[in-house]
Amino acid sequence: MKPGNKISTYNMDFMYYVSQLGWENSMLCHCYYQELPNQIQDFISTKEQGKPTSFQDMYALAMTIDHHYWECDCEHYHIRQAEKEAFESHSQKQEKAFISGPAMVFQNKMNSSSAALSAKTFFSKSSLFSASKKKSNSL
User: Fold this and answer.
1) What predicted TM-score, i.e. pTM, was given to this entire model?
2) Of 34, 7, 31, 33, residue with least CA distance to 21
3) More confident residue, 114 or 13
């Protein structure tokens, strides 16, 4: 069985060859077990009851284990995706806070500077206006 394949692919190939070979039950069971991936072999070999002795029992057990393996793999994938999205979201918020923090300080300084400049310009213009008005009155 190739890594990443589900057992159904392996079973189809195995059954094709079994139909042509005509081997007995114990030989089928042994050959079937030998080509299973390690994660399935490990689980079968650690069972308290031991390895199944009939091909049908081995086949059914391997199907069950493979199904559970891919189910867990799918759950882990979704958990990793959720963690990745949460991390990226948090990173983007941190980045915005980092960028907007200094930018807001700069913007506030610019706004207060322009406000001070506008006020200064206004007062200097009004003082020029009042000074020119005083001049014209004194003439």
Assistant:
1) 0.51
2) 31
3) 13
